[in-house]
Amino acid sequence: MSLLSVEEALELVLALAPVPQPEDVDLSDALGRVLLRDAVSRMTQPPFDAAAMDGYALRRADLPAPLQVVGEAAAGRGWDGALAPGQALRIFTGAPVPTGADLVVMQEDTARTGDQVTVTAPPGHDNIRPRGSDFAEGERIAAGRRLGPADIALLAAMNVPRVTVARAPTVAVLAGGDELVQPGETPGPGQIISSNDLAIAALARAAGAVPRILPLARDTEESLRAAFADAAESDVIVTIGGASVGDHDLIGRVAADLGMERAFHRIAMRPGKPLMAGRIGGTAMLGLPGNPVSAMVTAVLFLQPLIRRMLGQTDAMALRHGRLGRDLPPEGNREHYLRAVLSDDAAGVVVTPFADQDSARLSVMAQADALLVRAAFDPARTAGDRVAYIPLPH
Ligand SMILES: Nc1nc2c(c(=O)[nH]1)N[C@H]1C(S)=C(S)[C@@H](COP(=O)(O)OP(=O)(O)OC[C@H]3O[C@@H](n4cnc5c(N)ncnc54)[C@H](O)[C@@H]3O)O[C@H]1N2
Ligand code: MOO
Prior knowledge:
Elements: H1 6-14, E1 22-26, E2 39-40, E3 50-51, E4 55-58, E5 67-73, E6 87-91, E7 103-106, E8 110-113, E9 116-119, E10 128-129, E11 140-141, H2 149-157, E12 162-166, E13 170-175, E14 180-181, E15 192-193, H3 196-207, E16 210-213, H4 221-230, E17 236-240, H5 251-257, E18 261-265, E19 269-270, E20 276-280, E21 283-288, H6 292-310, E22 320-324, E23 335-345, E24 348-353, H7 362-367, E25 370-374, E26 386-391
Parallel strand pairs: 5-6, 13-16, 13-17, 14-15, 17-21, 19-23, 22-24
Antiparallel strand pairs: 1-12, 2-11, 3-10, 4-6, 4-7, 5-9, 8-9, 18-20, 20-21, 22-26, 23-24, 23-25, 25-26
Helix pairs in contact: 1-6, 3-6, 4-5
Molybdate ion binds at residues 270-274, 289, 291, 294, 359.
Catalytic activity: adenylyl-molybdopterin + molybdate = Mo-molybdopterin + AMP + H(+)
Family: Belongs to the MoeA family.
GO molecular function, one term: molybdopterin molybdotransferase activity
């Protein structure tokens, strides 16, 4: 039986995402979140005709005669009254323009003596921002919008302090294996330090989820069962390791005992072949391979898109193009995601894969800027060929 392609597998993983659930958040927590309900402005902006310059408000028809300065308006401190013919008002940026005035002359273009002001340069633009010229009360930011920094500023200006967005999914991260101890502990004979759980939690957080790293599990069914029980309330459980065919690779067995509906196990991808996905009760499950680079690559390709889908984001993963920086041999029967560095030359982006593609080498992964994507059975390539890549988060 031929293995699923990455594309087919991704579709099955995205199908595990439940409909996004609403949650109200303060604007300070809204960056990157997707609006689930329209946000409606409670303000008109500017709320009054506002000066765009520090200078003098006056009537254009009065020029070029000298004018009498009758008062002052600053931002937050308006001037009550209407400007009569022959009068000018000292005004500062953001202040309401008084009734009667139709021009603000910037102070660099004026000369002042006592309470007399003369305009010294021919006036051009009126330097008035009309009421409502930015936005009006009742204007909407439509549901579906992913909020960036400028959206948050706009919502604040609209006096919308909280917004309804898709709830951030909770992701339980379960690493395990008798060989693992935590960073800071002293490894015994044959032991190494667990890195995958931190890596996957970081990728989950970067995609917008709320990760929770579970205690390291041991290579026993009992230990894994306890961990799955601990994660039952999470939206997603990500296991790392124990996905392959070894005698100690218990994840598949324990998950099946717990009633996992399996979407697939193993895909035509390198690294990442032992990837597993499915659902246990209300929790989506991804079983990532244990090799540290394989775990991270599969998290970038499957976990992060799953989280983004749960957050209401529907845009596909950005595949970019550049030119190959070195010759490559023909590809095997799995789609290959090679760790690569990006550089620029006069003709654009150059993508140079590392010679060392061992799926356990974190030192190489940490230097990589991108994953160079090669199709299964891709023929030999030479430097300069057009290639596709996925940028990696730094
Ligand atoms: N006979 C076969 N052997 C293997 C196959 C195969 O198809 N047939 N696939 C290989 C591939 S590809 C991968 S990837 C690994 C995946 O195996 P598992 O998912 O079962 O992972 P483990 O055996 O538990 O661990 C693999 C490797 O990764 C280290 N590891 C695990 N967890 C962590 C962690 N939290 N932090 C750091 N390092 C971790 C673990 O010590 C192992 O060295 O299987 C191949 N074998
Ligand atoms: O998938 Mo293993 O993930 O090739 O190293």
